[in-house]
Design goal:
Blueprint (H helix, E strand, L loop, with lengths): L10 H15 L7 E3 L7 H9 L9 E5 L2 E7 L8 H12 L3 E5 L2 H13 L3
Parallel strand pairs: 3-4
Antiparallel strand pairs: 1-2, 2-3
Length: 120
């Protein structure tokens, strides 16, 4: 089987690999890290999701640790943030959340290890 280089990964694969590493490495975090539902398929679904509070621009995943909220946006290749994503980031940072764009599994691992090593 050919190993796929990380820089050829899809957004979903990067996010899945990061999540799986996280919960395998730190099982006690299983209820503290989760993905957000984004990109509704179909008009009806989009209207329903908006009605229940799912908004454009929200981050891909969240991690709550030691009283702090960390928000992660996964990007691959030359992907960049859209205006809605920047607005979400700015609003949440104003309220104290820590927002990070993740472009590789290694970056995610280092970020989580650093978060877990911080003592408040």
């Amino acid at each position: 089987m050919t190993q796929i280089k990380e820089n050829n990964w899809t957004h979903d694969r990067l996010q899945a690999e990061c999540y799986q590493w996280h919960v395998d490495e730190y099982p006690d975090d299983r209820h503290l890290v989760h993905a957000n539902l984004n990109n509704s398929v179909g008009g009806r679904r989009g209207v329903r999701n908006t009605a229940i509070g799912i908004r454009k621009g929200r981050c891909d995943s969240q991690y709550f640790k030691r009283g702090r909220l960390y928000l992660f946006e996964f990007k691959v290749g030359s992907d960049s943030q859209k205006a809605d994503q920047k607005a979400f980031q700015e609003a949440n940072e104003r309220e104290g959340a820590i927002y990070q764009i993740i472009r590789s599994v290694e970056q995610y691992k280092l970020t989580v290890i650093t978060i877990r090593s911080v003592v408040f």
